Amino acid sequence: MTKNRVGALLIVLLFVGCVRHHERSAASPGGKVPEASLPAGSEQPPPAAPSSPGRFAPAAQSASSLTLHPVPPAGRPPAGQTSAASLPGTQGLLALTAESPVYPTEYEIGPLQPFPSGDPAKDAIYDLAEKFTGGLAKGKIDAALLSPRWRDTLERFLSYPKEHETLPESMRIGLITVQGGSATAPVRFARGSGRTRGTLYFDEVDGKWYLSDIQTDFGRLSHPFVRSEPYEPTSWQWLLTK
Predict the structure, then answer these.
(1) H or E element: which one contains 57?
(2) Which fold has domain 105-240?
(3) Rounded to the nearest 5 degrees, what angle is found at the Cα of 65, between the Cα atoms of 60 and 66?
(4) Distance separating alpha carbons of residues 39 and 212, to the nearest angstrom
């Protein structure tokens, strides 16, 4: 009987000792396991790295220090570096240019010829047409601007409107078309309230451009122009391109 009581007492004491040992381990600071309870030759594990806002990549860690470095967002180059985009061939040059220019459009002859245009032949023809019309506005016919081959014919043609004072005072010139040594341009002449359209023809002789023909009716300049339909640039431009 006495032996049974002693055995039971030893079991109770052993159970109480285990419970107290477990409580001391759980209550140790930082959640560390007491060194006495670690196997021989083992080291205390380092504490877990604290969480920080933002994206960080930890560098080499040690038990005593932890260094954090910022990581740039995806798609953005690191600080101090720039990214450059390049296009192959002429695409890079095309990307640097502005959109295609839009030139004024006349009601009957379409887009007007730009000046200067960068084309030596077209610029020379445009300058020739301007000088010719400027002379007509003063009642003069500059024979030096007329083609030597067709000079007499053109002077006879212009003599009638000159006599009846129906020569144009101003002119609008459309896009010039150059084909080899000849060129054409749609035009619209004006005098007072009168309007008429036509076509100018040019020839190149010894590297110089001359006026070779005029297709128009200067007699219409003596009557006021009456528009028979409203001006609708979009629909009119569609007709000109067909």
Answers:
(1) strand 56-58
(2) Nuclear Transport Factor 2; Chain: A, (3.10.450)
(3) 50
(4) 113
